[in-house]
Amino acid sequence: MTINTILVPQGSEYMAVCRGLSRVTGKTPKIIPVPVGNKPLTKYLQQLPKQEYSTGYLQPKVLVMGLCGSLTPQYHVGDVVLYESCISQEQLQVCDSAFTTEIHSALKTHYPTLKLVKSLTSDRVICSALEKRHLGKTLAADVVDMEGFATLEYFNGSDVAVAMLRVVSDDCHHNIPDITAAINPDGSLQPLSLGLRFLSQPIAAARLIQGSLRGLKVLEEVTKSLVAEF
């Protein structure tokens, strides 16, 4: 099995994956930092030269990595999940089943509880625990992110196989700060705006930071474990 390219949200998630790759000897996949959010990511992918992810390969394999939020009590902070599909506005996109099975097989020894999940891709941060659980029940979704659907929508129908591996960084039992307004139209974060929102909800912010740090550490470890299998 080969992973040609890893797409990961820019910032701390990208740096965590880079740290994981730095701990692997030999050849590693190309890693590309991408914007946060469906619309910025779609625009970015449309402008990304095809040779960035497909040069020399009959069927390029692109792995999306990063953090996600739980929508059900079944998944907790630090859990590693492998996507089966993504939904957005009642539309469904499915990950490449063969590539996903290969990823699962490569990780089953290190992560025996690794499960396939259905993700909701949202255009905003779902900050209310009540809303998370409601969305989980009504949409039959397990986790939520902001990039999965756009990636699948762009690559599906092409010759690119896509799989998605993420780590849960916030659960469905606690609120987190609403940081949607701190995300720029280009998918980057506004540090000052982010800090102000954290200050306005210090307890929720502390919980989010703690969960993110734990999730990032697991993201680094799972990157190392996966790539070392090749």
Protein model, in words:
The protein is α/β, with parallel strands linked by helices. The protein has helices spanning 12-22, 38-47, 51-54, 97-107, 129-139, 148-155, 191-200, 202-227; strands at 5-9, 30-34, 61-70, 80-88, 91-94, 115-121, 143-145, 161-170. The chain has a five-stranded mixed beta barrel, surrounded by five helices. Helix 5 links the parallel strand 6 and strand 7 (143-145). Helix 1 (12-22) runs parallel beside helix 8. The radius of gyration is 17 Å and the shape is globular. The N and C termini lie close together (7 Å). 43% of the residues are buried. The mean pLDDT is 91.
Question: Structural class of the helix and strand makeup?
Answer: alpha/beta
Write down the Rg.
Answer: 17 Å
> Helical residue percent?
25-40%
Strand line-up of the largest beta sheet: 3-7-6-4-8
Secondary structure tally: strands:
8
Shape: globular
What proportion strand? 15-25%
Average pLDDT, rounded to a whole number, is 91
- Sheet bearing the most strands, described? 5 strands, mixed, barrel
CA-CA gap between termini: 7 Å
Order of helices and strands: EHEHHEEEHEHEHEHH
Q: Report the total helices.
A: 8
Which stretches are low in confidence, meaning pLDDT under 50 for 5 or more residues running? none
